[in-house]
Design goal:
It comes from Halosegnis rubeus. This protein is mainly alpha-helical. The protein has a single domain, classed as Orthogonal Bundle (Globin-like), CATH 1.10.490. It has seven helices and no strands. The protein is globular. The N and C termini lie far apart (44 Å).
Length: 124
């Protein structure tokens, strides 16, 4: 598999969408994080998260939604919430047979945006 893109190793858009669907099911059902998704359009979130992960994994899709910061300004995440979401993301990746090295790459791509996820409207 040398030279194969992460996107391909994850199963392309279909494989990534499967992981994202599982991940959001876990987020919604989680005692700590579920409240953040009570009024959310989960279908739309799954689609945009799939586009985002496809792009960062080297696929042909592009994420053209709002910036990560702008999309999450209204969500009062704390660092512990991000940590919990990472746990659930790793669980979803494992349940879909994603090798550890590739799972780490996916999580690194997401956690690179931690500052934006934690931003508040009054932050400069």
């Amino acid at each position: 598999m040398t030279g194969e893109r992460l996107y391909d190793r994850l199963g392309g858009r279909e494989g990534i969408a499967d992981v994202v669907d599982d991940f959001y099911a876990q987020l919604v059902g989680d005692d700590e994080l579920g409240e953040f998704f009570a009024d959310a359009d989960i279908k739309r979130l799954r689609e945009t998260q799939t586009d985002f992960l496809c792009e960062v994994a080297g696929g042909p899709e592009t994420y053209d939604g709002p910036s990560v910061r702008d999309a999450h300004l209204h969500v009062p995440f704390a660092p512990a919430h991000i940590d919990r979401a990472v746990e659930l993301l790793y669980r979803s990746l494992e349940e879909h047979g994603v090798p550890d090295e590739d799972a780490d790459a996916v999580v690194e791509a997401v956690t690179a945006y931690q500052e934006e996820l934690l931003a508040r409207p009054d932050d400069e």
